[in-house]
Each structure stands twice: as structure tokens, then as C-alpha cells.
């Protein structure tokens, strides 16, 4: 799958054993970490399969946590997931595309950012059945509003049912259609610089476009969170060059020099970058 496969044999074997026992596909996180190369030929490190060591000498012997399936299963046990979100997650798990929904720890981080910001006006690009948008709507004040954009009407029906069940429908403005068109029309309507928070979790080939549009809609000091910035580890693998990977890789690279925002890439879920408009 990636060059990471060749880098970290010790960790891989540990991972595979756990995955085999749990009867599920191998989790790619460990295999894709550049930080893993020091493990080659040092199988004593298998004694602690949760830790990998920086490959690049610039980082010294910096140790970072790698998420094995067991450790990953531990994370959600430390998330305070509201009952209604759990119900939605479990219902969605039976649907096609369920792997797309945000994880409980990611949704909790989004809700926390909204609360820290004191956000009232939010946007989500890529709603699916509504897990992350509901997490945000639940913490918005009664006067708050979330514009929820998605092109898939079937998924949106599930989302709307859950907004109703959770009693937050009055805070959510669902926009069914191509997200870039919805965002453009919001700009045309004079809504520029009026939003506090945005979350992007849709078409990966459109990341730069979504970012440019949202940068117009979000106020100075507002936050844009971009999901899937690690793209299952593919971004760090020079052998992977499909359109989505290239788009995210280019987006990440360009963001490094983008003086319009301050940034923080967080390796939660499939990677999220938090961008604060300057
Ligand atoms: C990864 S899922 C979103 C998951 C959601 N944030 C959650 O936590 O459940 C991506 C969604 O983006 C939507 N999408 C993809 N491309 C789109 C586009 N160009 N315009 C609008 N929606 C789009 C898909 O229909 C899909 O529901």
C-alpha cells in the first residue's frame, strides 16, 4: 500500500496479529508513519508496539504514539458521546459509506472548537447522515445556525431525521446541492466574513476550492477545519499519485506558505488541519 509497509516490519506484524484476531482489515496508520523506520532491526521495540521513534535525525529520538487497533479502541471509551450521536452512529454503521462518518473523538474535537470560539454561525461541507454536523448543532446556542451542505438527498434525509430527534432542526439550514455552488451563492448573498466556523469533509479534489470559498465566508479569527488531510497515509507515500491524493498533498503543501491563516495539523482520525483566519 505504501512505502511505510517496508519500513516498519515489527509494528506491522503486531498490527496484523491484532487485526487477524479481531477479524478486520489491517489498520494502516502504523504502516504509514515516516516516524517508524527506527524499528527495523530493533524488534525489542515490539515490547511496546504503541510507540514509534522519529526517523528524521532532526527530531532526535522523539517518540510518538502509534494507534494500534487496541489503542484505537481505547480512545472512544474516553469520549463523552451524546446518546443521540451514538444512536445515529449505530444506525449509519449499517449503511453504505458508513466508513465516511467522523469518529466520536473527531466530532468531540469539532464541538469543542465551536464552544471555545463561542461560534454562532457555522458551515459544514459534506454532511452524509449528519454525525459531525449534529455534534456541532448540539453545542450551538439556540440563536446559532449551521449551514449543512451535501449533494446526496438520501443521506440528508437521515441527517434531517436526527436533527429533528435531537431538537436542533431550527439551528440547521440544509443546503442540498453541489457544495461549491451553495458556498458561492452564500457569498453572492452578501454573507462574506459572517461565519465563525467551517468544517470540510467532502470531495477531496475540491479542497483548495472549498478552502478559498470558506476563507471568504469566515470572519477574521474564525476557524476552518479540513478533514482527511493524512488521507489514510497516502499523502506521505510518493508512490501514490491518484487525483485525490495529489489534491490533498498539494493542499497541505500550499497551506504551509499561506499567510492568510495560522494552522495546526492534528493526527486525529484521518488527520485534520485547523486553520484560523488572520
Ligand atoms: C465523508 S462524507 C461526510 C461525513 C460527515 N461529515 C459525517 O461525519 O458523517 C462526504 C459527503 O460529502 C458529500 N459530497 C461529496 N462531494 C460533494 C459535492 N461536490 N457537493 C456536495 N456534497 C458532496 C457526499 O455526498 C458525502 O455525503
TrEMBL record:
**Origin, by domain of life?**
Eukaryota
Report any Pfam family annotated for this entry: Methyltransf_3
InterPro entries, alphabetized = Cation-dep_OMT, SAM-dependent_MTases_sf, SAM_O-MeTrfase
The Swiss-Prot or TrEMBL record lists the needed cofactor(s) as: a divalent metal cation
The question of whether Methyltransferase is a record keyword is answered with yes
What CDD domains does the record tag this protein with?
A: AdoMet_MTases
The answer, when asked if Metal-binding is one of the entry's keywords, is no
Query: Could you tell me what this protein is called?
Result: Uncharacterized protein LOC104699678
| Gene source species | Camelina sativa
